[in-house]
Amino acid sequence: MNKKKKKTHVPFRLNMLFFAVFLLFSLLILRLGVVQIVYGDDYKREIARTEDKIINNSVPRGKMFDRNGKVIVDNTPLNAITYTKYQGTKQQEILRVAENLAQLIDKDTKKIRERDRKDFWIMKNPDRAAEKITDKEQALFEGKELTDKDLYKLQLERITEDEINEFSNEELEVLAIYRELSSGYALTPQIVKNEGVTPEEFAVVSENLEHLPGVDTTTDWDRYYAFGDTLKSVLGKVSDADKGLPEEQLDYYLSRDYNRNDRVGISYIEQQYEDVLHGQKAKVKNITDKAGNVLKTEIISEGQRGKDLVLSTDMDLQLAVEKAIEEELWAAKGQAGTTLLDRAYVVMMDPNTGEILSMAGKRIVKNEETGQDEMQDDALGNITTTYNVGSAVKGATILTGYQNEAIAPGTRHHDAPMYIRSTPVKKSWTNMGTVDDLFALKRSSNVYMFKTAVTIGGGQYIPQGPLKLNTKAFDTIRDSFSQFGLGVRTGIDLPNETIGFKGMDTRPGFLLDLVIGQYDTYSNMMLAQYVSTIANGGHRLEPHLVKQIREPVMENNQLGPVMQEIKPKVLNKLPMKEEWIERVQEGFRQVVQEPGGTAYSWFPLEYLPAGKTGTAEAFYDGPLRKNFGKEAPEVMNLSFVGYAPHENPEVAIAVLVPWAFQGDKDHKANLKIGKKAFDAYFNLKKQRVEQNMNQANPVQLVENIEEVQAGQEIAREVNEQSVEN
């Protein structure tokens, strides 16, 4: 029997599967070919792609010099250890760097907070930290009812005090370093240590940089004050590296290419001139791969330290004035009736340019540790505190009277007590009889000023009767006073200047107080601007502490080329006749130079001074106010404004001694301080002229004469510009 040969039969579905596999494999090969042949170069470039990160490194700030070229503020170089965190750096990597660095340097642990200890404990003890979460809480987390943040918060709350005190001193040092390393921003250098870095630490870290990724050794800086605390409050402060940019100005500085940990001026001159002092930052380009690893670093520009400021202040004069304040404050404090006396202020100013020659203030405070009184700098009080200043403002009152036709030069009034219904008696310090405007300034007649104010207010004085005045007189007088700088900001190149208090009560008696300086309050800087306006013939000049901005130079303590000269700025010219101003100038001359003047015999006549004294009845509102209940004690404020020489003034002065005494125990500290300040100015001038005469050759003498003439020319230009305006 013939057997049939069997046929091998492959099912149709299996053939389809083989065909599909073949087709897919072909497509894969085709796709790989496209990737390699068509787009290969593009993908190679993408793999090798790098990113350029431009980093700004800080540079030392500009210096400050006084008007004679003496260094006031400088930079002290410091050895520093920094850390730059790369993008994508993990916590454990930072911890390893901290542990290695802790073996090489000492690090203060005082700044470690409790939260820092807890975070570090969790990092060092992950298993124990996990045990602080219950099974129920873990289940809630897995059910997405709790977040990682919630669990971490629970762990922090459950760490005990004993647990965070488990760290050894060595571990705390690691924590202190780790805290600094992790607080920095990616690719921004962070100061790890810049105080007390020893040469040994600096050297050993430098030698081990290859084992400390991100760590570097460099030179940092700190501010140095050549005259200690003298004028320090006015010079201002700079933020430290820990705080960096002020939180309230963060967006402003970041938009101007600052780093978050940059140090900036945070008060007064340092803040006001931040744009000038901070310098041109060094620019470094970090080239990184896609993972954020730094492949190469290139220096784009070396940077330049900040520009230098030349202040208008004469530091020799400043020191002499501060000494005078201290001597007279201590002397007055030892007398009866001066329990509340604790401060005094002086401003000396060039009345032709607005340059501040000296801005001094002192305050007596009790040392909390020793219980002893000690003297502290309070120069800022010249612009930040205001007081009733008394009769010093009477020059403005007389000129306001002229302007409003309430009086004319030579107008006479009878000085006797004024009895106004429902008002305390209004009188001068003594009955003077019939006086004119000059005598009223010379002897400081209150009644003359009262009657001038009554006329301005459209009223009429009737003994024992009511006094009705137009309340618009308050605005009339204040508007006029503001032309001198009283009751308005002076425009000084410092922040936080106060404008004082304007009394709100418009009863007639307060208008009379206003014109003798016993209602509104003024700062001592306002008094300096006011008397300078009278001294220079009616031009209110903007006071300024910065005289020049100069380019920095490499030579130690040398001045570079002048970049900007701060020129005199006239804020306004008094809308008054020249002869009226000259009349008040004559009254001020008589106050100081003629017998009977309230400042006569206090100042040497050789420098021909002029001025006006002030004594104001006021209420104490100082640091001891809480000790007196509802009734503030009555005190007397003392003031003095003046200038010299009276014909061609070159220096103006304002002295203010608040809460000087109680009762009638006048110690004349205002005049004693004023005399010593004037003496210091003219003695220094004499010494310098003699020194120049002894040292200079004929060519130098000619140059000195030309400098004086140039200063006089500036004053003339200011006057001419004001007249044109």
Automatic annotation (TrEMBL):
Name by which UniProt lists this protein: serine-type D-Ala-D-Ala carboxypeptidase
Family classification: Belongs to the transpeptidase family.
Pathway participation: Cell wall biogenesis; peptidoglycan biosynthesis
Domain of life, source organism: Bacteria
Cited SUPFAM superfamilies: beta-lactamase/transpeptidase-like (SSF56601), Penicillin binding protein dimerisation domain (SSF56519)
Compartment list: Cell membrane; Membrane
Tagged with keyword NAD: no
Gene3D superfamilies (alphabetical): DD-peptidase/beta-lactamase superfamily, Penicillin-binding protein 2a (Domain 2), Penicillin-binding protein, N-terminal non-catalytic domain, head sub-domain
EC number of this enzyme: 3.4.16.4
Record's keyword terms, sorted: Cell membrane, Cell shape, Cell wall biogenesis/degradation, Membrane, Peptidoglycan synthesis, Transmembrane, Transmembrane helix
Domain (Penicillin-binding protein transpeptidase) ranges: 345-668
GO annotations of cellular component type: plasma membrane
Catalytic activity: Preferential cleavage: (Ac)2-L-Lys-D-Ala-|-D-Ala. Also transpeptidation of peptidyl-alanyl moieties that are N-acyl substituents of D-alanine
Membrane-topology descriptor: Single-pass membrane protein
Molecular functions (GO terms): penicillin binding; peptidoglycan L,D-transpeptidase activity; serine-type D-Ala-D-Ala carboxypeptidase activity
Span of domain Penicillin-binding protein dimerisation: 58-297
Record lineage: Bacteria, Bacillati, Bacillota, Bacilli, Bacillales
GO biological processes: cell wall organization; peptidoglycan biosynthetic process; regulation of cell shape
